Every structure is written in structure tokens, then in C-alpha cells.
Amino acid sequence: EWMTGLTASYGTLSSEDSQFWVFIEGIDAEGAITTVKPFFGYFYRDNRCIGVRFGYQYIDGDLGNLNLDLGEKNDISMSVEGLQLINNSMSASIFHRSYVSLDNKGRFGLFAEIEASAQMGKGEFLNSSGETPKYTKSENMKFELGFNPGVAVYVFPSVCATVSIGLGGVRYASISQYDELN
């Protein structure tokens, strides 16, 4: 049997004149993360599946202002403003899942997934706080071997909803950063 699915997420962050702890205040920030990951799998035995997953991630963030004040006795205070980040990345992975049923009809179950993935992307960082804006680009690469256990519930006979948690693994990341030449 074949399995196909899609994981999609979208999250936003917005803060206006917020305070974090006692010494960080005046935070004005906005950001969004969008992720889409289609996957395909083949059950080569009962309750055992091998598959591939592809992904795209887009991150956009803007820090309008942030004030740091460690108090009069420490005489340390600073302000950061005008920072913007945009990051795009693509990923591909191969995974193996093993399922265990929790009831007699097989509607509820647990699974253990091992995934080997590679991700490559590009980022842009703009610092417009001074007189001359500073623009930096980066290229990033990440390899990961992860363990993702989860829960599976068959909503309909051929439709299954799953929830998994990335418990851990091994990750290697490399980031090459360079300034934009004018």
C-alpha cells in the first residue's frame, strides 16, 4: 500500500512596545514562518513504511526596536533597531516508520519514525540602523538524523491524522556568510 500526505504550518509573531524580563523593553517586532512538506511512503510489510519527504520553508522577520537597560549601577544600556531577515530553504529526507496498534480495530496507534534529512537555503539580513545600511547574505546547509515518535488516528478508513514530536537526533549545520558588494 501507498501513503501520501502533507504537513503545512504558518505562524506569525507580532509585538508592539512589549517588555521581556525586567531589562528588555520597547520590543517592536513582526515575523512569519511558512512551511510546506509533502511526503510519500510505501508499506513494504504490515505496519512498516519507508518514504520520502520534501519541504519548503520561508521565514520573514523585522525587528523595529529593542531597548536593553541593565540598570543605573551597571551603566549599561543600548538600543537595537531596523533589522530585517528573510530566509528560504528547501529540504529532502528519507524516513522509516513502524506502527503499533492500540486497539483491536486498528484505529488508534503509535509510531516510531527515523528520518535522515538534508536542507539547503539562502538568507538575507539587512541592518538599516546606521547612516549606511548593511546588507549580508548567507548560504546554509544542514544534515540531520532524527527520531520522531507519534500518535496515529484513523479518522476514516483511508484517512489518518498523525501528531509527532521530534525527540532528538544528530545535526550538522554549516553557514557561509558574506557581505553584499556594491
What secondary-structure arrangement, pairings included, does this model have?
Layout: E1 2-20, E2 24-45, E3 48-69, E4 77-101, E5 108-127, E6 134-156, E7 159-164, E8 168-179
Antiparallel strand pairs: 1-2, 2-3, 3-4, 4-5, 5-6, 6-7, 6-8
Q: Number of DSSP helices?
A: 0
> What fraction of residues sit in β-strands?
over 45%
Largest sheet: 8 strands, antiparallel
Broad shape: elongated
Subunit organisation of the chains: single chain
Number of strands: 8
Q: What fraction, in percent, of the residue positions are helical?
A: under 10%
Taking Cα atoms only, what radius of gyration do you get, to the nearest Å?
22 Å
Structural class: mainly beta
Low-confidence stretches: none
Explain the overall architecture.
It is elongated and about 65 Å long. The protein has strands spanning 2-20, 24-45, 48-69, 77-101, 108-127, 134-156, 159-164, 168-179. It contains no helices and eight strands. Strands 1, 2, 3, 4, 5, 6, 7 and 8 form an eight-stranded antiparallel β-sheet that branches. With 182 residues, it is mainly β.
